[in-house]
Amino acid sequence: MQKEILKIIKQGEGEQVEFKENFGDKTIETLTAFANYRGGRILLGVNDKRKITGIKLGRESIQKIVNEIKQKTDYKIIPEIEAFTADNKTIIVLSISEYPSKPLSFKGKYYKRIKNSNHLMTVDEVVNEYLKVRNKSWDMFLAEDAVLSDLDFNKVQNLIKRINKTRETKIEKDPLSFLKKFDLIHGEKITNAAQLLFSKKTLFFTEIQIGLFETDTVIKKSITIKDDLLSEVDKIMDFIMAHITKEYIITGKPERDERWQYPLSAVREFVVNAIIHRDYRKGVHSQFKIFRDKLVLWNIGKLPSGLTIQDLYDGKEKSTPRNLKIAEIFKEAGLIEKYGSGVKRAVEEIVEYGLPKPKISDMASGIDIEIFGKQEHVKDTVKDTVKDTVKDTVKLSKNEEKIIKLMKKNPSITANSLSKILKINLRNTKNNIANLKKANIVKRIGADRGGHWEVIS
After folding, report:
1. What is the strand order of the sheet 105-106 is part of?
2. pLDDT of 388 strictly over 50
3. DSSP string, 224-254
4. What's the pTM?
C-alpha cells in the first residue's frame, strides 16, 4: 500500500486524488464532491507541489477527524482512514467511494468533482441527481393542480390502437386501465407525463417554434406548435417535409422512387429525441429551423453529468432518458427502439445517405443539432421546373422542357399547337410527349378532345 501511495504522489492531483497539508473544511468539501461523483482519495500531509510535509497524529486525531466529517455532512459520510509513514513523516489517506444515495451535502451545500477541482452544484443538478438515484424522473411525479378530467380519453384510445397494431399481446382497450397499467394516474391525480401526453388543454410548456429561414434573420414562414407530445412529432415532420426538397428517381418501374433531401427516419429520430429529453420544467420552447441547405434543432436541457457529445456519437449513452415515463410510452408506440443508441443510428443513416456528419453541440443550456444537406439537392421552392425536380436522374431535351412549361401554362394545349410554337414537326412533338409520359412526368387526363394535360413532377 505504501508503494501505491508514493506512486499516487508522484503522479500528482487529479479527478480522484487531492493533496492537503492539513485537515479542515476544504478536506470535507472534497470528500463530499468525491462521494457525489466517482469517489476518490485525499492525502493529508502532502502539499500541492507533491512534497511530503507530514501531519501530526495524536492519540485521538483519527477519531476527531471521523466525528467532524460526520457532523458537517448530510447522510453522515464516513471515509476509510489509514496512516502511513514516508520519509519519516506521517501521511493520512482518506478514501471515499461514490455513494449510492446522492447527492450529499457539506454545510448545506452540494459539490461535485470536475477534473481536479470542486464545483458547487446548481439546483437543477441537485434535483436531477436525486431523481436519478431513486430511478425516477420529473414526468413520473404528480402534476400540480391537474386531475383526471383534464385528460382527453380519445387521445388515450388512439394511442392504444397504435400500440396494438404492432403488439403480439394486445393491451386492454379501456383508457382508464391503460393509464393505471403504465402508472400515469394515481386515483384522480395525474402525472406530469399523462398531462404532457393526453391533456385537453393547450400547454404552454410543450411549445415548439418551427420555421422556414432564408437566412439567420429572415424568416419566410413559421408556426408555433402547442400540442400533446405524440401529436407534436407528426406536426413537426409534416412541416419539415413540406419545406425540404424531394427528387423523383425514374427507374423504369411503374412507380417512381422518391429521394428526400434528408433521410426522414433519421430526422424523425432526432425530433423524437428532442421531445423525450427536453427539460419541461424550464418553460423554454424548442426551436427548429429549416434552411435551404440544413436543418437546425435546438432543445432546452443540458447533457447529464458524465455524458459527453462524443458519447452520443459513439452510442455510449450511460444515462437513462430525462423523462423516463414519456420515453416508455414512446417506445410502446414504436417511436423509439431502445434507449441509448438512437442518435448513433441516426448519424450513421445520414452519413450512409451521402450527407455530411451532423454537428451536435452544447449551446445556451441546451443541445443544438445541425443536419446538413447536399448543396446540389437545394432548389428554390418557388421554381417548378421538372429539370430542378429530377436533376441528375432524368435528362430532358430542351424541347421536352419547353413542352412541360407550355403544358403548365395551358393544360388544354394540343400537340398541333405545341408543334407550331416549338417549330418542330408533329411527329417529333408526339415523340417528345411520349417520352415524358413514359417517364411518368406528364399524363393525359380525359380524351384527346376535351381532355387536358397534367404535369406530375
Report:
1. 105-106, 109-114, 117-120
2. no
3. EE-S-HHHHHHHHHHHHHHSS-EEEE--SSS
4. 0.61
